[in-house]
Each structure stands twice: as structure tokens, then as C-alpha cells.
Write a structure and sequence with these properties.
By secondary structure, the protein is of the alpha+beta class. It has one domain: Cytochrome P450 (Cytochrome p450, Orthogonal Bundle), CATH 1.10.630. Helix content is about 45%, strand content about 10%. The strands form three sheets. The chain has a six-stranded mixed β-sheet with strand order 1-2-3-9-6-4. Strands 5-11-10 form a three-stranded antiparallel β-sheet. A hairpin with a 2-residue loop joins strand 7 and strand 8. Helix 7 runs parallel beside helix 18 and helix 14 runs parallel beside helix 18. The longest helix has 20 residues. The structure holds protoporphyrin IX containing FE (HEM). Protoporphyrin IX containing FE binds next to helix 13, helix 14 and helix 18.
Length: about 400
Amino acid sequence: MTEFRRFDLSSGAFRANSHAVYRELRDAAPVCPVMLPSKQQLYLVTRYDDVMTLVKDNRRFVKQPENAGLRSRTNIPWLPRMFRAMGSNMLYVDQPDHTRLRNLVHKAFTPRMVESMRTRIETLADELLDRAEASGTFDLLEDYALPIPMTVIAEMLGVPEKDRARFRSLSEKIISVDTNNGNLSMVLPIMRFAIYLRDLYRDRRRNPKDDLLTALVEAEAEGERLDEDELLAMGLLLLIAGHETTVNLITNGTLALIENPEQMQLLHDQPELTRTAVEELLRYYSPIEIATDRYVAVEDCELGGEPLPKGALVMAVLGSANRDERRFENPDTLDITRDPNPHVAFGQGIHYCVGAPLARLEGEIAMRALVQRLPDIHLAVAPDSLRYRKSLFLRGLEKLPVTAGATEKSH
Ligand code: HEM
């Protein structure tokens, strides 16, 4: 009989210690059967090579449960249709629908397109730092790391400024999935988000603008390419994925540099290292620690020597693959000069992060501005008082209180 280990994968306490757990699993149980507090069973995959296989082999491992002989994610009769619609975003569908959906937005996020946002992001970072510097002690997450990606993605899509606080609070509730009550806690905020988006789309049909929401509405109007459910799901995915991830790159990255002052100093002295530094920060404290659900679609499947039953839920631990000693030399050492750095923080295969060029640009601008202007930044609280947000997928701090300026260091 399969023996399941019990982990509360989404709890902040688990995340605070997760790298030690993964290290043990990589050695002793690299494809490990796990039972969540909700009684959900899954397999946790922690070695680099196995993670690569899992995210790249979309014949054996699929995103739509019905392609693995299970009930469809969207076929839950008692759930409102608008909620079920959200299951049809590109991250949760297989080919050929996936290709059609991804092609609709892919062009908006190419390196050339996102490069045109550079000046806007630089101005934003400078303004936020002006304010932070003046206040001395501030929350790096709320006052710096969050407003950058949130403003950028909201402006790209066309979410009015007056609505940003509301959109942020709904997004936060959706992300904080509590594995103890399954996905129930997400129903209400997703519904509210969907209603809000539907109103925005209505507005764009009447008043087209030069933004991504208008482009999506126009794709829907042409028929064939995008139906209304998919239109809602796409807006939700882009808005959430566009900021809930990068905020953690900047916040976790700052924490990693504070914990490694010689690396902070090196980056300050050699700003040309920012590109490799951002790749290393993505590897070291990967913002998406666990990739989204995948299901075994075939009989007699095997991964890392472990037999997997058809229909099993299998999760790729990207954060663990990025610390695998079989792939990286000194994986627990932060080395901002590491190059090449074949991390999998953006995933791999057909679901490879569509926003990676944007995330990299935001990360590079934010980290360069911060380290150049406030190299002596340090924690304003004791390190062990830092708390991680409840989330199955994300490594995200609740806040990061820091002090800038030449005050005496307390740690
Ligand atoms: C540091 C920041 C980011 C990280 C670490 C990150 C990471 C990831 C990862 C790991 C995946 C694949 C998940 C899986 O295979 O289960 C993914 C997919 C995706 N990301 Fe990102 N992401 C970031 C920023 C962004 C941004 C700024 C956007 C902008 C819209 C974005 C949009 C998406 C979308 C739409 C997908 C789904 C792609 C598909 O299914 O084909 N991400 N991201």
C-alpha cells in the first residue's frame, strides 16, 4: 500500500522551512506520495531531471483532468457558470486550445514589446524609492515590490487607477488558497473578479482603447478565436499572474541580498551584474515554488522510478529543482555571478511563462534601482519574525519591513 506523507504545503510555516524538507525528499523520496490536510492525495516531484520531464512531457502529464480520465474541472454543477469559466485559462488547458489561447497574447509580451515599457518602469521605481527613502523605515513589499508589477500589468490591460486597490484585494484572496477547505475559499472572490472584468469588457466594446483588454474583446468579436468564458479567464490569469509573481521576485530577492551582504555589495559595485543576479534570485528563492496541477494521462506511468497511477495528481517543485545538488554546484549558496544558470523558475515546455520577458525587465530595473540607491538597506525586524503567505504555489512574504539609510544596523 502506498504510504502518504502528510504536509500542509500551503501553510506559511511549511514554506518557512520548505527547502530543508525538499533536500530530504530529493535524497530519500524524489517522487513522494503526499496527503494534504484536505485529504487530497498527490505526488511531489523534487529532483531537477524529474521536474523537467514532468513539465515538458505533455503527452503523459496533462492539465485538464478529463484528459486523464477524471471529472472535468469545469463540470461541477453546483458552482456558478462564471466561476467554472475561470477554469478555462491557458494555464489549465491542453493543446490544441492552449496553443490558440497563448497565441492571442504571446505578442504582447515579447522582449521587443516589453522593452517599450522600460522608461515607465524606471520612473515608477525611482518615484517609489524617493518616497521610501524619505520615510526611512518602510515595507519593501507594499511600498516598492508590489506597486511596480501591479501598475505595469494594470496599465497594459487597461484597469483604471481608481480600481487598483479592489483588484489587489480580490487577487490576494484568490491566491491564498486554503488546502484545508479545497478551493471553496476562492469561489466568492473569483465571482466578484469575474463580474468586475465583465463590466470592463463591456466598456471596451463601447469605447475601444489602446490596451490589451480591447485587443481581447476584438479577438472575441471575430468569433472562433476566443469565447466569452475564455475572455474572462484570460483577463483574470493575466492580471493575477502579472503581479503576484514578480512582487515575490523583488521581495524575496531583496531578502536574499540582505541575508548575503557581500553579494549586495558586489551588485552595488558592479551594476552590470544585474542580469545574472536576477536569474540567481529567481533560482535561489523561486517565486513560484510549486508549479500548477498536472495529471497522469496514461496507464503504466513511471517517473523517477516511482510507478504512478493514471489520474494521479503530480506536482513539480520548481523551487526544489532549482536547489538540486545533482544539477547546481553549491545550490544553497547565493552567487550573483552564476552563469550559465539553467533554473526552471519560469517552468518549461508549452506552459513556459509567457510573461518571462516582462518579469525579467521589471526585476532588473527594480533590483538595480534599489541596490544602487539603498545599498545599506537592512531588516527593521528580527529575521525570525518574517511570515510567509498561505499559498500552495507561491513563495511570498506577508511583508518585509526594512530600514534604509545610515542608521545603526540592528542585526
Ligand atoms: C518573476 C515573475 C514570474 C514567475 C517566477 C513566473 C513563473 C511562471 C511559471 C513557473 C509558469 C508555468 C507554471 C506551470 O507550468 O505550472 C508561468 C506561466 C505563466 N505566466 Fe508567469 N511568472 C512570472 C511573471 C509573469 C508575468 C509578469 C506575467 C504577465 C502576464 C505572467 C504570465 C504567465 C502566464 C499567462 C502563464 C501561463 C502560460 C501557459 O500556460 O502557456 N507571468 N509563470
